[in-house]
Write a sequence for this structure.
């Protein structure tokens, strides 16, 4: 048992085991999520660069 901030007793359950299964479906879902996140981040950066005008970016480098 643990005490909370107000001095009361809190009941806590411990977890002894976790059943985790990684099969082909889970791996493909994680791969799909990774690809989607990569595409979203790339598109976001490309859109912001296009709005700022690439010629202005290149001119300001010198």
């Amino acid at each position: 048992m643990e005490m909370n901030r107000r001095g009361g007793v809190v009941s806590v359950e411990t977890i002894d085991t976790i059943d985790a299964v990684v099969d082909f479906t889970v791996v493909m879902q994680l791969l799909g999520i990774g690809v989607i996140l990569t595409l979203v981040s790339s598109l976001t950066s490309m859109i912001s660069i296009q709005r700022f005008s690439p010629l202005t970016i290149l001119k300001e480098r010198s």
In short: The two ends are 66 Å apart (CA to CA). Residues 24-52 form the longest helix (29 residues).
